[in-house]
Amino acid sequence: MDFLQTLVSIFMEYGYFAVFGILILCGFGLPVPEDISLTAGGVISGLGYTNVHIMFVVGMAGVLIGDSFVFWLGSHYGEKALTLPILKKVLHPERFGKVQEQFKKYGRWVVFFGRFMPGLRMPIFFTAGTSKQVGFVRFFLTDGFAALISVPIWVYLGYFGAHNFDELMRWVRNGQTIILALVGLAVLFFAFLWWKKQRKNQKAGE
Prior knowledge:
The protein is an all-alpha fold. The protein is built from nine helices and no strands. The protein has helices spanning 2-28, 34-46, 52-77, 85-90, 93-106, 109-114, 121-131, 136-160, 165-205.
């Protein structure tokens, strides 16, 4: 709660620019929870300092630019970039190898689910760039689609909970679980539609 209040105080003073800058730095590996930053942006909107809909756009832009930079770093410099101090701390060779294996198995789906995994986003997005299995356009669209799920949840959660911090923090603590549950339900729904279509095609071919 103290950390959220600290971010809210900073954002109240500097507005959209502070939120945008912090989110980009989160993509670079700044040890600040992206989810809390987005929630804090929503809080200052709820308190009347900014417009919540503009804050949502700013949040999306900050998230996608930060993620794209990490992807670009991986695609242009490859494993050489792992010598950078900021990457050495979060992406040691063992973790890098495991993420590479996941890309070989699941491709861009790793990018999609990586957006919902705090602490693993940067390693996953960097490896997406080095893997050469996901082009930038596909990466951007996949990450953008995932961000359209997570970003508004955090921003509007902060907006509606701005006047009740205790209740807000309870929702923030459960927020990641709720988002993953929603994503899981969406995946099951689309898997069901795909299965239903396959069965229909099989019957048509008989």
